[in-house]
C-alpha cells in the first residue's frame, strides 16, 4: 500500500515538472538574453491516495523498490516514502533533496515506468548468497482403526517434522458367542465370546464353582498309641480326601500301690482302661537295710602231731604211723610227737537285714 502511494506521488510530480518545463522554455524565447532568469512556481496537482486497494499475493520474492535513484548533479539520492501530500518550490541556490522535488532529465510516462531511472547509477556490491528456506515434503501413512485404537493419517517430512489428522474412531469389538462351559466342583462356569476381527476373547455369565460333595467311605479307628483316619469321596467328580485323626492316648486308672522296701520307694500303680498298659509312679525314697551283726560259729579239734609234721586225731593213728618207720633210716624223724589244737569254723561271721532278711558274709 505504501509503495502504491509513493508511485502515485512520483507520477504526479513528473507530470507537473513536464508542464512547468515547457512553460519555462516559452518564457525564455520571449525575453531578452540579458534578463534575469526567474524560477517559475510549480504547483503540485492534487493526488488522491486510495487506501483500500488490496495488494495482490505474490509467491516469488518482491523486488525492493523503497530506494529510487534520481539524477541530480551526477549523484544519487535516497528517496523515502512521503508522510503526506505537500508542495515544494525549488530555488536557485538550494537543490531539492526530498522525494517531493525530483528533477528527472528524461521523464517517462506513468505507464512505462513506476519511478525515474538514474542515468549514472552508483556501483554496488552484489548481494550475499542466502540458503533457500526448507520446504517440507510430507509422506502420508494411513493407519487403519482397530477394535481398540483410533485410526489416523500420519504425515512425516524427511527433516523429522510430522503431524496427524483424519482421525477415525475405534471400531469396537464384534463379539460372537462361543462355547458354554459348565461349572465343576473346583472351577466356575462361563460363556465364551470372541471378537471376529481381532481375536480377543472374554468370559460372560460366569458362575461359581459347585464345590465337592464328599461322603465318608471308610474309617480307621484311632488307638492309644496310633492315630486313625476318615476317608471321603466326592459323589460328582470322584475326588478322594483322607483326614488323619490323632492317637487317643492312654486312659490310666489307679490300680493299687506297693509299699516302700529297703531298695525300692513307695509306688502307685496305674492301668489303662482301653489297652491294659500299666504305669507306676514312685513316691519318696527306698527305706534302706537295717543290718544285724552275727559272729562266726567255730569249734576246736585236739590231736597229736608227729615230728615229721603229720597230724593225727588219735594216738592210735599216731602210733601206727611211727611204727612204720621203726628200724629205718627215718626212725628218728618220726620218733616223737606233740599236741595239736585246731579251731574249726562251722559258720563264718555275717550281717543280716532285720526288715528284708538279706544276709551278707564277711
Write the element-wise H/E pattern from the N-terminal end onward: HEEEEEEEEEEEEEEEHEEE
Counted by DSSP, the helix tally is: 2
Shape: elongated
Instruction: List low-confidence stretches.
Output: 22-115
In what range is the share of β-strand residues? 25-35%
What proportion of the residues is helical, as a percent range? 10-25%
Strand order of the largest sheet: 1-2-3
- For the CA atoms, what is the radius of gyration? 78 Å
Structural class: mainly beta
What's the number of domains?
A: 6
Biggest sheet statistics: 3 strands, antiparallel
Name the average pLDDT. Answer: 75
Number of strands: 18
Spatial separation of the terminal alpha carbons: 157 Å
Structural account:
By secondary structure, the protein is mainly β. The protein folds into 6 domains: 1-24 and 43-51 and 65-120, no CATH class; 138-168, no CATH class; 175-207, no CATH class; 214-244, no CATH class; 252-287, no CATH class; 292-361, no CATH class. It has helices at residues 2-30, 315-323, and strands at 138-143, 151-157, 162-168, 175-181, 189-195, 201-207, 214-220, 229-234, 240-244, 252-258, 266-272, 278-283, 291-294, 297-306, 311-312, 337-347, 350-353, 359-361. The strands form 6 sheets. The chain has a 3-stranded antiparallel sheet, with no helix packed on it. A 3-stranded antiparallel sheet has the order 4-5-6, with no helix packed on it. The protein has a 3-stranded antiparallel sheet with strand order 7-8-9, with no helix packed on it. Strand 11 and strand 12 form a beta hairpin. The model is unreliable at 22-115 (pLDDT under 50).
Amino acid at each position: 500500500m505504501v509503495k502504491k502511494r509513493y508511485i502515485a506521488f512520483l507520477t504526479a510530480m513528473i507530470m507537473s515538472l513536464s508542464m512547468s518545463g515547457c512553460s519555462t522554455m516559452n518564457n525564455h524565447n520571449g525575453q531578452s538574453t540579458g534578463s534575469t532568469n526567474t524560477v517559475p512556481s510549480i504547483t503540485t496537482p492534487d493526488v488522491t491516495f486510495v487506501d483500500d486497494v488490496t495488494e495482490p499475493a505474490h509467491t516469488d520474492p518482491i523486488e525492493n523498490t523503497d530506494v529510487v535513484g534520481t539524477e541530480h548533479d551526477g549523484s544519487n539520492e535516497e528517496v523515502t516514502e512521503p508522510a503526506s501530500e505537500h508542495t515544494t518550490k525549488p530555488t536557485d541556490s538550494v537543490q531539492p533533496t526530498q522525494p517531493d522535488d525530483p528533477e528527472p532529465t528524461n521523464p517517462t510516462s506513468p505507464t512505462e515506468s513506476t519511478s525515474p531511472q538514474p542515468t549514472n547509477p552508483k556501483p554496488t556490491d552484489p548481494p550475499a548468497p542466502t540458503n533457500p528456506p526448507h520446504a517440507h515434503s510430507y509422506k502420508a501413512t494411513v493407519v487403519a482403526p482397530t477394535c481398540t485404537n483410533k485410526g489416523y493419517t500420519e504425515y512425516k517430512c524427511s527433516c523429522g517434522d510430522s503431524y496427524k489428522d483424519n482421525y477415525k474412531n475405534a471400531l469396537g469389538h464384534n463379539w460372537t458367542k462361543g462355547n458354554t462351559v459348565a461349572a465343576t466342583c473346583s472351577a466356575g462356569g462361563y460363556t465364551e465370546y470372541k471378537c471376529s476381527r481381532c481375536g480377543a476373547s472374554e468370559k460372560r455369565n460366569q458362575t461359581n464353582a459347585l464345590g465337592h460333595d464328599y461322603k465318608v467311605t471308610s474309617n480307621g479307628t484311632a488307638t492309644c498309641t496310633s492315630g486313625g483316619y476318615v476317608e471321603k469321596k466326592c459323589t460328582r467328580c470322584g475326588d478322594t480326601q483322607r483326614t488323619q485323626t490323632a492317637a487317643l492316648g492312654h486312659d490310666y486308672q489307679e490300680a493299687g500301690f506297693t509299699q516302700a522296701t529297703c531298695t525300692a520307694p513307695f509306688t502307685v500303680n496305674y492301668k489303662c482302661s482301653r489297652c491294659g498298659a500299666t504305669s507306676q509312679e514312685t513316691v519318696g525314697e527306698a527305706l534302706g537295710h537295717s543290718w544285724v551283726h552275727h559272729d562266726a560259729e567255730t569249734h576246736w579239734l585236739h590231736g597229736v602231731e608227729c615230728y615229721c609234721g603229720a597230724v593225727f586225731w588219735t594216738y592210735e593213728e599216731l602210733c601206727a604211723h611211727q611204727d612204720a618207720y621203726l628200724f629205718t633210716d627215718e626212725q628218728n624223724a618220726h620218733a616223737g610227737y606233740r599236741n595239736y589244737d585246731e579251731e574249726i569254723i562251722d559258720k563264718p561271721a555275717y550281717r543280716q537285714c532285720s526288715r528284708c532278711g538279706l544276709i551278707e558274709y564277711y
